[in-house]
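Recap from last week: sequence in, structure out.
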Amino acid sequence: MNTFLGILIPFAGTTLGAACVFFLKNEIKPLVQKMLLGFASGVMIAASVWSLLIPSMDMSEHMGKLAFIPAAVGFGLGILFLLAMDRLIPHLHLGCSEPEGKKCSLKKNTMLVLAVTLHNIPEGMAVGVVFAGMLAHNSDISMMGAFALSIGIAIQNFPEGAIISLPLKSEGNTRARAFTMGTLSGIVEPIGALLTILLASYITPVLPYLLSFAAGAMVYVVVEELIPEASEGDHSNIATIGFAVGFVVMMILDVALG
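Predicted structure tokens:
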């Protein structure tokens, strides 16, 4: 029951963020959006380090000076995986007029949701891998540590849900439709986490690689998408401040709860 609740927490963050469409009239102000994107970036980078990469290396201590290998290999594969997904899946980022990925005839709104869904794949994977490690009674991953990752991702999912649903409404969709599409963009997280947990018996032997794989995928999203989006328009330090706050919040969650 605790595991099921844990994998639903990030999805709840997306849903609550998407619900902002019922309370806010217009799109989020550019400065606020920059801050939220920076905050999300900070949370994801901190989660990648404290919740994924460090446990990956701790689990590989028996390799001595080569304990970095699973973390380095998994991290690189995570980057390559998201790079391939970015090239294959048609999607459109906020503020862009040209879609990325393979050419298709999908509607603009659909491709906007696909862009956020693509971002959520590594987050769902990260939660699933950590809970799978906890269920396998790995001493490097505790129940509270797994929940710390879920809570951290839920916190950064809140602005993501709002950032996708509000523009959808401003483009002519009803509040209910914008909310539904914003919520569905996060459904891949609990599904991915659940599938990962169901494969736990196969995952345990390669857990250090999978933890760092998820870290690489998350870092890819931050560097490729979140930071550039936070830097668009007039120069401002607000995104940097948001990054610092997000990083510290996730670091505190992981250390205090983990």
